[in-house]
Task: inverse folding
């Protein structure tokens, strides 16, 4: 399972950074940590000025993007092959304000797949306390990603 998780993360990095985009900015600070025996994925996000607002706190849009990416990767873990996906509903709740220098841990999981919709969830933690959550229902398309 560890090998598949690392392959999923590397595939995501390759796809997300293949063209100039917002993804390139935050992915410099985003790293794979581990996969649990249950299949939950863990990532870290090092908060830097580049992804903060003018007050020096992690920008809500940056955290939303990271949570979206993490939930998508947790869905890929459940599929036999990587397929094109698109968030149908992404609900994010912000509970805390990490600042420059903080390290945020993201835990994401796929709760299940019903036909062509994956139901996923993620938590962002700072020093063990939840600072954000995401619930993401993701459409799965038939197109396989190389």
Result:
């Amino acid at each position: 399972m560890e090998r598949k998780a690392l392959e999923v993360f590397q595939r995501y990095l390759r796809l997300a950074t293949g063209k100039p985009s917002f993804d390139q900015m935050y992915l410099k600070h985003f790293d794979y940590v581990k996969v649990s025996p249950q299949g939950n994925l863990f990532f870290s996000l090092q908060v830097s000025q580049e992804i903060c607002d003018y007050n020096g706190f992690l920008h809500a849009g940056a955290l939303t993007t990271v949570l979206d990416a993490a939930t998508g990767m947790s869905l890929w873990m459940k599929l036999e092959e990587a397929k094109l996906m698109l968030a149908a509903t992404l609900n994010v709740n912000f509970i805390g304000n990490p600042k420059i220098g903080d390290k945020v841990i993201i835990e994401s999981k796929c709760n299940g797949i019903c036909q062509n919709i994956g139901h996923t969830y993620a938590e962002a933690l700072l020093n063990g306390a939840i600072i954000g959550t995401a619930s993401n229902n993701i459409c799965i398309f038939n197109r396989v990603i190389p």
